[in-house]
């Protein structure tokens, strides 16, 4: 019986870190994982999405219930390479820390899921039911991979979902805010700045609208996940200082909550735009990404299992909190009931998207053991 031990898991992690899947090239990661799983008699299917981008599905066991486990294969850009102490696409261990782009977000979590599936398969497979790995592309920008899985019905028969995004060993999440990216475009009429009365400054109504929207959203009462966040992130307009701009655009990101969701944000902004347009503005709104908040009960079956199994590894109670960012659960857990078994739990810390992204080696090894245990015991009597 060949299983994935600590050194082998580190070698796999090093191999996938070496693949620069920066918002692209997930197909290379998928092919690597497909070949790895095949060595252990686990069949994996690659689903091309576009170009060099693809999803991967692998299953062990058979029949019901189905536990879906998920991790994404893409990473964010390394940023300023000169600011890194190591090559971001080479896994380096120093003083008990693992360094590399994606080591926390979230190739360590993905490798932990793959290693656990291999080990369980080598130990005879799940007692009953199926473990389904959904490895996604494009999570960092747009979540197109999980959207494709949702459209394909990959979650229709799932009895639970574990996402191995970074949580440390001390916390898990059963809910996450929504994320809504919008582009607002304002049109005006360009004229010389000495005669503004002959034109229309596209920036003026847009800035006024954004300020009014920001003030309004700050009045929304906070929900269980916290407040709605209305972030004006990019504002563009004008080409030169002595001409009124005839075009202005803004990119905003809204972090939504179940108590005030994406549809309500849409309605409020639509109403504001209509009011400004009635006063002479020409503003339009386009949705770029629309991911609703996901909320399951904090005592759902999978969270309780994570807490029970995780406590000995953490050395204290595993706390349930909201995920600070969105995950592929925005699509994979869409339209599931409130008690749907869902948890975010995986190796990592808060260095994701930063220079010198790192992960304690001990955390990686601990979560390897945890995920192996968690997937092993999800099934008794179809209950956690």
Automatic annotation (TrEMBL):
PROSITE patterns assigned to the protein according to its UniProt record, in alphabetical order: ARGE_DAPE_CPG2_1
Cofactor: Zn(2+); Co(2+)
E.C. number(s) listed in UniProt: 3.5.1.18
Ligase keyword on record: no
InterPro entries: ArgE/DapE, ArgE/DapE_CS, Bact_exopeptidase_dim_dom, Peptidase_M20, Peptidase_M20_dimer, Peptidase_M20A
A Pfam family this chain is assigned to: M20_dimer
Pathway: Amino-acid biosynthesis; L-lysine biosynthesis via DAP pathway; LL-2,6-diaminopimelate from (S)-tetrahydrodipicolinate (succinylase route): step 3/3
UniProt catalytic activity: N-succinyl-(2S,6S)-2,6-diaminopimelate + H2O = (2S,6S)-2,6-diaminopimelate + succinate
Gene3D superfamilies recorded: 3.30.70.360, Zn peptidases (3.40.630.10)
Keywords carried by this UniProt record: Amino-acid biosynthesis, Cobalt, Diaminopimelate biosynthesis, Hydrolase, Lysine biosynthesis, Metal-binding, Zinc
NCBIfam families: DapE-ArgE, PRK08588.1
Family membership noted in the UniProt record: Belongs to the peptidase M20A family.
The name this protein goes by in its record: Probable succinyl-diaminopimelate desuccinylase
UniProt organism field: Lactiplantibacillus plantarum
Source lineage: Bacteria, Bacillati, Bacillota, Bacilli, Lactobacillales
